[in-house]
Amino acid sequence: MRTKLLFVWFILALVATSASIAGNRVSVLHNGYVTPIDGYEFLPGATDSGKRKVGSTVTLVEGKNTYLIADPGMAAKGAWPKILAELALRGLTPDDITHIFISHHHPDHNTQLGLFPNAVLVDHWASYQHDIWTDHPDNFVIAPGITVVRTPGHTSEDASLIVDTAEGVYALTHLWWAPEYFPKDDPLGHDKDAMLLSRKKIAATVDWIIPGHGALFANTRDNQQPIAGDVQAKVKKAVWAASAGWVNGFNAGNAEQCADAYEAHAEMIATPFGRFVGRAAIKAFWQNLFDQGFSDVTYIEPKIDVISPRAAIITSGWSMNKAQGIITKELWVLQEDGTAKLRIDLFEVLGD
Fold first, then answer.
1. Model pLDDT, residue 70
2. What gap in Å lies between CA 135 and CA 131, rounded to an integer?
3. Do 59 and 71 touch, CB atoms closer than 8 A?
């Protein structure tokens, strides 16, 4: 009996952890950059007349009882109010941030630490809050599916944040500065051999890379395991059912039903209308269309791509009584109850 109870407890714990990981979300709040200024040395420390524009990529990670900001550093004048406005769109204030992760100790990645007074600061080897310094090992778990991994190379104190989500595994890292694995050779790398090993480790385990000074990009790894047919079928069934529910809601002029198809903090970009975050804003958008007489939406040759055991992307053409266009990305994510909801919705109106 004791063995059976332990087994049941283990299965329940595994299910709970899987559900927590599926609920993890990664949102890039600000794309970083490093750009030269004419007449000045680009690389730091090369001469006494060096000068450059630098902005860190700032990312929000949401997990179980966790709201984490990664690399809250330098940005152009006026950028940080916009970053905080992104938090507000998600119902968050700086006081709500529970953790700050810094990829390394260079000032361009941590100049705004003071904006988040309640956060625990986490780096490659410890956590810090008030006057308490708490050491931690490599592969330190902040929350289920959110792990700090030591990745020396750019500096000896570099770390990467690995986040397991429904749509795949993310690495928030300074092993690369910008998309497409740039630069090939880090001109500021502290230890090139260590960096090579760190890059190989990260590239073999993640699906998405958020570099220190650039936009998110996909990482194609050779060891990616295929998704079993029965798992793909399960995901597709849930997504098609949820998609049909959204279409039925739209054609009934029911903004509440349309909005319920989205996760609470879903992001929708409707070109050329704008960007909408959260169910309330999305509901208002659809209600406005209904008030203008839009109806009768139809998907044209929809395609579905199962990208993980918990998520799929729909692309499609669409038409309705007063408009037509394309869906470039509907990211549907399976929830704890097995149903699917929209996390990202990107579509475009074509023509007049």
1. 98
2. 13
3. yes
